[in-house]
UniProtKB/TrEMBL annotation:
<keyword id="KW-0813">Transport</keyword>
<dbReference type="InterPro" id="IPR017871">
    <property type="entry name" value="ABC_transporter-like_CS"/>
</dbReference>
<dbReference type="GO" id="GO:0005524">
    <property type="term" value="F:ATP binding"/>
</dbReference>
<dbReference type="InterPro" id="IPR050166">
    <property type="entry name" value="ABC_transporter_ATP-bind"/>
</dbReference>
<keyword id="KW-0547">Nucleotide-binding</keyword>
<keyword id="KW-1003">Cell membrane</keyword>
<dbReference type="Pfam" id="PF00005">
    <property type="entry name" value="ABC_tran"/>
</dbReference>
<protein>
    <submittedName>
        <fullName>ABC transporter ATP-binding protein</fullName>
    </submittedName>
</protein>
<keyword id="KW-0472">Membrane</keyword>
<keyword id="KW-0067">ATP-binding</keyword>
<dbReference type="InterPro" id="IPR027417">
    <property type="entry name" value="P-loop_NTPase"/>
</dbReference>
<dbReference type="InterPro" id="IPR003593">
    <property type="entry name" value="AAA+_ATPase"/>
</dbReference>
<dbReference type="InterPro" id="IPR003439">
    <property type="entry name" value="ABC_transporter-like_ATP-bd"/>
</dbReference>
<feature type="domain" description="ABC transporter">
    <location>
        <begin position="28"/>
        <end position="242"/>
    </location>
</feature>
<keyword id="KW-1278">Translocase</keyword>
<feature type="region of interest" description="Disordered">
    <location>
        <begin position="1"/>
        <end position="27"/>
    </location>
</feature>
Length: 261
């Protein structure tokens, strides 16, 4: 991994660049990260390490800075202080699939890829997400769940060592959401990349992640390690215990009607 890791994304304060981490030490290493908007620190001295191949879920109240952190890790925001080390090969999928309406699905999947790869590359990724039969379709003819899978295929063709997902299932109906969660779990196990999943759904976090983080006050305020066997069973008492602990951390009353954050 060491050769795949680039140095600090940038710093507004001039600092000595940190040495690259030892091979396979981390997929993500964030040290003393701060991001201010109009003088207000949304991220304030945040530390984060993600192991190669680790699935991490990130929870936190609306507006606490989750998407800001994700955008920084994706290299989309460089107005930061601190050190951010991420793999060179990373991909991001957002809540809205962001497909270009004037390009067919397979062309959307290849968009921005270097080296002009051919259609078979797109079709292979579309097959992997169960969308091979819609390769030639226009984006506007896709259902919400299909569009989200196309967005995942677009992330997968980048063969990422780090997959960044910002509420990718947020706009899906309950059944499609469950299928999409399963798909992401399978892709992660098959690909072995590190995943950082931003979600508001505590149950989704506990279903999928090795570790669940709660962001608050600009830092990672809490983390829960999950040793539950996979596939996970929401009826498992340990599942319920971790979910309850996380809901409490999020300031949600726990009781008979846990519905997520
Ligand atoms: N470009 C920007 N300019 C000014 N303020 C911003 C900008 N981007 C984000 N913010 C502010 O930073 C804070 C964190 O935003 P962010 O989108 O990271 O929150 P979030 O945790 O992802 O919230 P949600 O769960 O609602 O998606 C918010 O108060 C937001 O208004
Ligand atoms: Mg957000």
């Amino acid at each position: 991994m060491a050769t795949d890791v680039h140095g600090p994304v940038t710093t507004t304060r001039k600092e000595k660049p940190a040495p690259p981490p030892a091979a396979n030490a981390s997929a993500v290493r964030v040290q003393g990260l701060s991001r201010r908007f109009d003088g207000r620190a949304v991220i304030d001295g945040l530390e984060l390490d993600v192991r190669p191949g680790e699935f991490v879920a990130l929870l936190g109240r609306s507006g606490c800075g989750k998407s800001t952190l994700l955008r920084i890790l994706a290299g989309l925001d460089r107005e930061i202080e601190g050190t951010v080390l991420v793999p060179r090969r990373k991909a991001v999928a957002f809540q809205s699939p962001r497909l270009m309406p004037w390009k067919k699905v397979w062309r959307n999947v290849l968009l921005g890829l270097p080296g002009k790869p051919g259609r078979p590359v797109a079709d292979k990724a579309l097959d992997e997400v169960g969308l091979g039969h819609r390769s030639d379709a226009w984006p506007k003819t896709l259902s919400g769940g299909e569009a989200q899978r196309a967005s995942l295929a677009r992330a997968l063709v980048r063969e990422p060592d780090l997959l960044l997902l910002d509420e990718p299932f947020g706009a899906l109906d309950a059944l499609t959401r469950i299928k999409a969660q399963r798909l992401v779990g399978e892709l992660w196990q098959r690909r072995g990349c590190a995943v950082l999943l931003v979600t508001h759904d505590v149950e989704e976090a506990v279903l999928l992640a090795d570790r669940v983080l709660v962001m608050d006050d600009g830092v990672i305020a809490h983390e829960a390690h999950l040793d539950l066997p996979r596939p996970r069973d929401i009826a498992d008492p340990e599942f319920a215990r971790v979910r309850g602990e996380l809901l409490e951390r999020l300031g949600v009353e726990t009781g008979a009607q846990d519905t997520g954050a």
